[in-house]
Structures are given as structure tokens and as C-alpha cells.
Specification:
Length: 232
């Protein structure tokens, strides 16, 4: 049992070290602040997302965050909405900002976030919303036809009071679902017309100290494990 626990601890430490190495590799491969904004081409249904990391001294985090937030809320470069702000007390966690903006605003906002610096880590991806958009439109069309049929049926003079009540309930259910689908369609359209941008500013010294502490912990554990085996 002790051996099983020991291997579990080793596995956890190896995962932590691998994570740190991957982040370090990403930092080393960071590119320049080239244009990252993407616009879905005509006929496509791609929703774009971008995530960037800047190595910035912690004393500058608040100013960088405020500069981007102001530019976004003022729509300085085009329509933009701030979605989330995270400021952690732990220095290695850094400061994070998530926003959604039209493609034309993405690159100027990134430049404002870097203030002359290039991101050390950058990722862009796209989600194809073609099926989701098609399903929403098909459901809306079906419910619209059902609503029209019920409206025509309700004009009959031979309906009883209970029939009218049942029709009213069905109509209310259809209207509620159509309202919900209208919101879904609007959200999908917003994702197609704008880009999601996530920015993180992290303190390079604190981040390096965190990686070194993880590596040191693993070295210490492995050294103790080796000494224990040699003493058996």
C-alpha cells in the first residue's frame, strides 16, 4: 500500500513538472504581436477565440488592465464588452481579462495590453457553429409553423372552453420556446460577428520561482526515494 501511495505522489509531481516545462516551452516559442483577429468568411460559421500571455512586472498589471478595459468599454476600436476580470493575491496567478469585440478591435486591444511587449504565449482557435445554427433555425421554423396552425385552429367556432384553454397553453409553450431560441440565435450570431479575447499578465519573476519550486520539490523527493531504496 505504501508503495502504491509513493508512485501516486511521484506521478503527481511528474505531472506538475511536465506542466511547468510545457509552459516554459510555450514562453520560449512566443512570437511577435502579429495580427491575430479573425473574421468568418462568407458562408462559414466559425467562432474565433484568442488567448495571450504577457510577462509583465506585477507593478504594471493594474495599469495595463485599466488601459485595455477603458479602450473596450469606450468602444475605442469598435464594439467591445468586458466579460470577466480576475486579479489574484497570488503573484504567480497574475491578472486576467476576458472580453468580446469585433475583429477590427482585437489587434489594437492586444497592442494596448502589451504596451510595446510581445506575448510570450498565444493561442487561437475556432469553433464551427454550422450545425448549432442550423438546428436553431430549423427548430424556430418548426415552432413558427405550429404556432400558425394553432392560431388557425383557434378560429373555429365549435371549440369548447376546455379546447380553448388547451390551445392557449400550447401557444404559450411555443411562444416561450421561440423566445428562448431567439436569444440562442442572437448569441450564436454574436459569436460569429465578434472574437473572444483572453489576456493574462503574469509576473515573470514569480512565475520562474513557481517553476523552480516545483522542480526543486521533485528533485528532493526523488533524492529521498533513491536514498531509501539504497538503504533497503
Amino acid at each position: 500500500m505504501a508503495m502504491v501511495k509513493m508512485f501516486r505522489v511521484i506521478g503527481l509531481l511528474l505531472v506538475l513538472l511536465a506542466s511547468a516545462c510545457q509552459k516554459k516551452s510555450a514562453v520560449n516559442s512566443g512570437g511577435s504581436a502579429a495580427e491575430v483577429a479573425q473574421t468568418a468568411s462568407a458562408g462559414s460559421f466559425l467562432a474565433y477565440e484568442h488567448a495571450l500571455v504577457f510577462d509583465t512586472p506585477i507593478a504594471q498589471h493594474a495599469a495595463r488592465l485599466e488601459a485595455v478595459r477603458r479602450a473596450c468599454t469606450a468602444s475605442e476600436f469598435g464594439a467591445c464588452s468586458v466579460l470577466e476580470i480576475q486579479q489574484s493575491a497570488a503573484p504567480w496567478s497574475g491578472t486576467r481579462l476576458r472580453l468580446r469585440a469585433v475583429p477590427a478591435a482585437i489587434d489594437p486591444l492586444i497592442q494596448r495590453a502589451g504596451d510595446g511587449d510581445s506575448p510570450v504565449q498565444r493561442e487561437s482557435k475556432a469553433e464551427d457553429l454550422a450545425d448549432a445554427v442550423s438546428d436553431t433555425a430549423a427548430r424556430q421554423a418548426l415552432l413558427t409553423r405550429q404556432r400558425e396552425q394553432l392560431a388557425a385552429f383557434s378560429e373555429r367556432r365549435d371549440l369548447s372552453a376546455s379546447d380553448l384553454i388547451a390551445l392557449a397553453q400550447q401557444m404559450a409553450g411555443i411562444e416561450a420556446e421561440l423566445h428562448q431560441l431567439s436569444g440562442t440565435a442572437a448569441h450564436q450570431q454574436r459569436r460569429l460577428e465578434t472574437n473572444l479575447l483572453s489576456i493574462q499578465w503574469r509576473d515573470p519573476d514569480a512565475h520562474q520561482e513557481k517553476e523552480q519550486s516545483i522542480s526543486g520539490l521533485l528533485d528532493t523527493f526523488l533524492m529521498g526515494w533513491r536514498d531509501g531504496l539504497e538503504s533497503v
